[in-house]
Amino acid sequence: MQSRLAEFLPYRMAITSSAVSGAIANEYRAQFGLKISEWRVMAVLGDAGALTQRDLVGATQMDKVAVNRACKVLEDRGLLQRSPNVADGRSHHLELTAQGREIHARIWPQAQEIYEDIFAVLTPREVERLRGLLDKLLGAVRRFEEQGK
After folding, report:
1. Order of strands, edge to edge, in the sheet holding 51-52?
2. How many angstroms separate the Cα of 16 from the Cα of each of 6, 12, 22, 103, 142?
3. pLDDT in tens, 20-79
4. pTM for the complete prediction?
């Protein structure tokens, strides 16, 4: 008999996501000394370019404190820089430095390779179905949040 927790899909999704992230994180932690939160910020900035901290909170789905802490570490290491946000003087744009972009370019292929190794157990059709299901669930969560539930 399985426990209620083992049957609770949000728990299983969190455990699976954490395991996949952890497998990838072990590689860049050992090689580059980055925590998951720091790599997540770097990955988003490497993909999207300069963003505000508020934008990063939304894009990473991490809380403000975790994003702030990760940005501080990355800035102290010279991997991230701040520039004034001319549209809003109360915030800054955050972007990868040349060194940050170089590390991002080195990590990304490794992360992609590990992802492909892990997801090789799924057929291409299953991967696309999973993407669609995750998009549906995220949309449902966003609607739930908008309704104030």
Report:
1. 51-52, 92-96, 80-84
2. 12, 6, 10, 26, 21
3. 988 888 888 988 999 999 999 999 999 999 999 999 999 998 999 999 999 999 999 999
4. 0.81
